[in-house]
Specification:
Layout (H helix, E strand, L loop, with lengths): L9 E5 L1 H4 E2 L2 E2 L1 H16 L4 E5 L2 H15 L4 H22 L23 E4 L8 H12 L4 E5 L4 E2 L11 E2 L1 E3 H8 L13 H9 L4 E5 L3 H9 L6 E4 L5 H6 L17 H21 L4 E5 L5 H8 L3 E6 L2 H6 L8 E3 L12 E7 L7 H13 L1 E8 L7 H5 L12 H9 L4 E4 L13 E6 L1
Parallel strand pairs: 1-4, 1-6, 4-5, 6-10, 9-11, 12-13, 12-15, 13-14, 15-16
Antiparallel strand pairs: 2-3, 7-8, 10-11, 16-18, 17-18
Length: about 450
């Protein structure tokens, strides 16, 4: 089995309620899940699957309580742990031909140089749930996404089974979720995410999507970067206000040798924009173009100096306020998923280091929009896993929500019906420096 080592694994935490119900093992779910996982493994994905305990754990806990009247928290937890291990062995049997031979039951024992595309985990020890184990896997194996599968579509502001006015929540920060679930663990707790796991995920600034595990079309949308139903839990509320408040002042990211506002940073960005404008003018020769995610409009200004009728759109009001007065008339406030231009408007639509900042649910729509408003070329420079120089010279940027290998983006572009991905058609620096994808409108 061949899989993409450049793309980080996806951790899927499977709630026990999906694996077993009051009526027995949920074979219908398992059959569909088996096909779903194998489909994406064939496309180069890698997965960690963590099995929950669910009704099996509750049945044994209730039996113990009925016989002796009460049980210690540790005994309750251990019953839950062993229930998850039984469920994990069922998953291991289903995926025996593609899964690692070891079920992870001790998370201190790391896997070394494993080659299988699928690894299965179970509960570890008292004090937390398999949500916590999923967070440990994401931390230790470089996953940037945990999908938490349960029998609910969203996280709600209160229990929807009790309160008819419970509201679904699309986005949460870890701090906001902590206010909902608290900070204390108890065996059998009914919460969208274990309170102890919340604290660890918050510490390591991970992203988790809580969604209904039985909606496989929705799961495909999550994997494919299309719009989906589910609650996204992130370290920060990353939206237009985040970029206004944080990104352009450099408190969360920046080059190690100088922030964008410093003299050295300005010199570096000036050189980069001159190189980009010269590159575009020489190789693509557009009469007009649109820079999506243009920031302060520096590239737009440079392109206009080269005689190109250039325009820009930017989601950050703060960036637009910082733009030079001479270029402001050519800039607009807009979101990449809803570009305020007619179809086939520009010879060239380009983005530089934009798509990796998008949530998964916006990727497909963003690509569609950039192709829609172009009449000839679309060029995306994207920070990918291959661009290792970024890790040397750039501090960690927590607005990088979608860091994948080049293979992920190539597949997204090749699958689009309205554009063709051009191979080796323009000069670009080695993959360790940059990843550039040039498309031509069909």
């Amino acid at each position: 089995m061949i899989f993409d080592n450049q793309e980080p694994p996806i951790v899927i935490s499977i709630g026990g309620s999906l694996l077993a119900t009051q009526d027995g093992i949920n074979t219908n779910f398992l059959k569909q899940f088996n096909l779903f996982v194998r489909k994406y493994i064939k496309r180069g994905k890698r997965f960690f699957l963590v099995a929950g305990g669910g009704v099996t754990a509750r049945a044994y806990r209730d039996a113990g309580k009925e016989v002796i009247g009460g049980m210690t928290p540790d005994d309750l937890d251990w019953i839950g742990v062993h229930a998850t291990r039984l469920n994990a062995h069922l998953l291991r049997t289903i995926f025996e031909d593609i899964a690692h031979s070891r079920i992870i039951e001790n998370y201190d024992k790391k896997l070394r140089n494993w080659k299988e595309p699928l690894v299965i985990g179970a509960g570890w020890k008292p004090g937390w749930s398999t949500d916590y184990d999923a967070v440990i896997l994401a931390r230790d194996y470089g996953a940037n996404l945990i999908i938490n599968l349960s029998n609910i579509d969203w996280v709600y502001d209160k229990d929807p089974r009790i309160y008819t006015d419970a509201r679904p929540i699309e986005k949460l920060t870890w701090g906001e979720l902590e206010k909902i679930v608290g900070t204390e663990w108890s065996p059998g707790i009914n919460a969208p995410f274990d309170p102890i796991a919340v604290q660890l995920a918050r510490k390591h600034r991970l992203t988790v999507i809580v969604t209904n595990g039985e909606n496989f079309k929705n799961l495909e949308n999550i994997i494919e970067g299309d719009a989906f139903n589910g609650t996204v839990i992130q370290p920060y509320r990353i939206d237009a206000s985040f970029y206004d408040r944080e990104y352009y002042v450099g408190s969360k990211s920046g080059y190690r040798f100088g922030k964008r506002s410093s003299l050295l940073g300005k010199v570096f960005l000036g050189i980069a924009n001159y190189y980009r404008a010269m590159f575009i003018n020489f190789f693509l020769k557009p009469k007009n173009c649109l820079d999506v995610g243009c920031g302060t409009g520096d590239l737009v200004a440079m392109l206009r100096k080269f005689g190109i009728d250039a325009y820009g759109v930017e989601i950050s009001n703060h960036a637009l306020e910082l733009a030079d007065k001479s270029v402001r008339p050519f800039l607009k406030h807009a979101d990449i998923v809803d570009l305020p231009f007619d179809t086939d408007k520009f010879d060239l639509v380009l983005t530089f280091d934009v798509l990796e900042h998008l949530e998964r649910g916006k990727i497909k729509k963003a690509i569609n929009e950039t192709i829609r408003v172009s009449k000839k070329y679309i060029m995306h420079k994207i920070y990918t896993k291959e661009n290792i120089w970024i890790r040397w010279f750039h501090s960690k940027d927590f607005s990088h929500l979608s860091i994948f290998g080049s293979r992920f983006w190539r597949r997204k572009f090749l699958e689009h019906p309205d554009a063709a991905l051009l191979r080796n058609s323009v000069f670009h620096l080695p993959a360790m420096i940059e990843s550039i994808f040039l498309l031509k409108k069909k």
